[in-house]
Write a structure and sequence with these properties.
12 strands, 14% strand, binds pyridoxal-5'-phosphate
């Protein structure tokens, strides 16, 4: 059963016309509207046992084994999201994201518990300082529902391991004493599951730090628990602008009327919305599904931001796709649809290298004063470069001068800026000094050989 998206979805932001509601699973048909729309009711009635799930979903043997497994990652599904699941289709893309199967119990060779090496980048618990000017602040381990491929399953879902006020104090203290941090990304877990006053307290304290320019929240609440996006929450968030919010949606069917309405409320409060999707086998590893998804997102005023290659996290092995699948999806989007509907495909580098963008190649060749390009249709053209370009002069540029020489240019950007000639991996110098010595020895030996020849008697 395919749920059709309302083509006039954007009308739903106008408050006068109540939008249609998604149909509920029969199990909850008699729950009064007021309870169904109460996010606390939704949380209290989450499904997490075999018996509950089997009340309306025909589970496969693989799913039954997954749900029964002793040490699996936490299972919880809001009644709202469970109602979007196709109870009769084991391949339902929403079902695959939240119902465990025996396949997640299987390990795979490349798996790593903390594949992004976040812990090595944590100056205080729950704060990840990986990039020069921004930090990731984990404020809770709880989510409204749990994604089977969770990249932070090492901490997420643990009922006992919660972040406390003292953790927030230490995180905020680090940020306050680290003036280069201008962007704080609040995540978890799902920050929108915190009580409004607790989240507000964090936002208020961050806002008091002069060098913190923007706040960002990462949340899947608009998808799993759209009831939470109520006037109280939105009214609070809008007091802390500039505040950006990234949601996480993987399949167009997740953009149900309720999720659209939650996004409209946030967008109406002036909160720029982005979406981070994960490329998942059997869920969205299809160019046409991805096109439907990005179109549903931009209709809801959500800009597709990142498409992630699935991390090397235990339990997620069966969701992984070849990297080439992601490149193919970007190839099918770029040029074929609105530019702002195309996310950046990234691989979050195992070992803590950060996000690495990967994309199709459009630069076919280059020569003296000319580059050869191909477009999305396969049309090949040339662009002639100027012959009289006056090189940018950092000494006469106020922006360059005010940035000073604090080592902001590193890596390949530093090579292009002329700050270094080369970058060498660790140990490179020792190895190459050794090679040099050997070569010199060889030359000297040659010389000795020659002497030998010249003087055969010695
Ligand atoms: C993804 C991420 C960020 C934010 O990266 P952007 O590319 O700026 O969205 C910051 N810190 C960490 C540790 C991250 O993983």
């Amino acid at each position: 059963m395919e749920r059709q998206l309302d083509p006039n979805a954007f009308d739903e932001s106008s408050e006068d016309k109540p939008p249609p509601a998604s149909s509920r699973a029969p199990l909850w048909a008699n729950v009064p509207e007021a309870q169904w729309d109460d996010w606390r009711w939704q949380l209290r009635h989450r499904l997490n046992t075999l018996e509950e799930l089997q009340q309306f979903i025909r589970l496969t043997p693989e799913e039954i084994e997954g749900v029964r497994a002793q040490h699996r990652f936490r299972l919880d599904i809001t009644p709202y999201f469970a109602s979007l699941i196709d109870a009769d289709d084991p391949a339902c893309p929403l079902r695959r994201q939240v119902i465990p199967t025996s396949r997640e119990l299987r390990g795979f060779e490349a798996a790593m518990v903390d594949s992004l090496n976040e812990e090595a980048h944590s100056p205080v618990p729950g704060l990840v300082h990986r990039y020069p000017d921004r930090v990731l602040m984990l404020v809770t381990t709880q989510c409204a529902s749990y994604c089977r491929y969770c990249t932070r399953s090492r901490i997420v879902g643990e009922a006992r391991a919660q972040f406390k006020r003292s953790n927030y104090d230490a995180q905020i203290d680090y940020i306050a004493h680290t003036p280069e941090v201008r962007d704080v990304l609040i995540s978890g877990g799902d920050p929108l599951l915190l009580a409004t006053h607790v989240l507000e307290d964090i936002l208020r304290r961050l806002r008091q730090i002069p060098h913190v320019e923007i706040l960002r929240v990462g949340s899947r609440v608009p998808v799993f628990l759209p009831q939470r996006v109520d006037d109280e929450l939105v009214g609070m968030l809008r007091r802390y602008h500039p505040l950006w919010l990234n949601i996480h949606v993987n399949h167009p069917r997740e953009m149900a009327p309720e999720a659209q309405r939650a996004c409209a409320r946030l967008a109406d409060a002036g909160i720029p919305l982005g979406c981070q999707s994960v490329l998942l086998a059997g869920v969205n590893d299809c160019p046409n599904v991805m096109r439907e998804l990005v179109h549903a997102l931009v209709r809801a005023r959500v800009r597709p931001y990142y498409l992630y290659q699935c991390d090397l996290v235990p339990g997620a092995g069966h969701f992984r796709t070849p990297v080439s699948r992601g490149i193919e999806i970007i190839e099918s989007l770029r040029g074929h649809t609105s530019g702002f509907a195309v996310p950046t495909f990234v691989i979050d580098a195992p070992g803590g290298g950060g996000k690495v963008p990967v994309m199709p190649q459009y630069l076919v060749s280059q020569g003296d004063g000319r580059v050869v390009l191909r477009n999305f249709e396969g049309f090949i053209t040339t662009y002639s470069e100027p012959t009289d370009y006056q090189r940018h002069d950092p000494a006469r540029c106020p922006a360059c001068r005010s940035r000073g020489s604090e080592g902001g240019q590193e890596g390949v950007a530093g090579l292009l800026a002329g700050e270094h000639v080369s970058i060498a991996p660790e140990g490179f110098e020792q190895v190459h000094q050794r090679l040099t010595r050997i070569r010199w020895q060889a030359v000297n030996l040659d010389a000795e050989d020659k002497e030998d020849e010249a003087c055969p008697s010695t």
